[in-house]
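RECORD TYPE: inverse folding
INPUT: structure tokens
STRUCTURE:
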């Protein structure tokens, strides 16, 4: 099940289990993103936004200097004689 925080509007996965405070589809849940507790709808169809996905291409996060240093270091292992 997914829930959407009304305060920060992040959508996250919720484990199904007993809840002491609930009103229909709404349950009192603590948001993992902002840490606030509130009544949240359990049956949200929006895509999950929390936790943030790790980027697969980490080269985007490197500065130009770091990227150049990485390319130079990797070029030591290239075969230049063909």
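DESIGNED SEQUENCE:
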């Amino acid at each position: 099940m997914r829930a959407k925080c009304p305060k920060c509007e992040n959508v996250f996965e919720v484990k199904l289990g007993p809840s002491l405070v609930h009103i229909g589809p709404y349950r009192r849940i603590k948001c993992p993103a902002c840490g606030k507790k509130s009544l949240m709808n359990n049956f949200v169809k929006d895509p999950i936004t929390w936790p943030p996905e790790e980027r697969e291409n980490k080269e985007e996060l490197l500065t130009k200097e770091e990227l150049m240093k990485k390319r130079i270091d990797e070029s030591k292992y290239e075969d230049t004689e063909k």
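NOTES: Residues 64-75 form the longest helix (12 residues).
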